[in-house]
Design a protein that fits this description.
mainly alpha; elongated
């Protein structure tokens, strides 16, 4: 994987995590926005984990 692409992907995933984590306390639990924010947070964490794993594997 291109290191610049990995860095860009990691930045995008972290942006999704931070943005959704900041918005989450402002949402009403049980609303559609709350569910979408939880899904975005999960997707961002999953993406961050996958990209970090790929970077770690390529660094060896």
């Amino acid at each position: 994987m291109n290191p610049q692409a990995a860095k860009a992907g990691l930045g995008m995933a972290l942006f999704v995590v931070v943005a959704s984590a900041l918005v989450l306390p402002l949402e009403v639990p049980g609303s559609a926005e709350y569910v979408v924010t939880i899904l975005a947070l999960g997707a961002g964490l999953l993406g961050t984990g996958v990209i970090a794993y790929v970077i770690h594997r390529l660094a060896r």
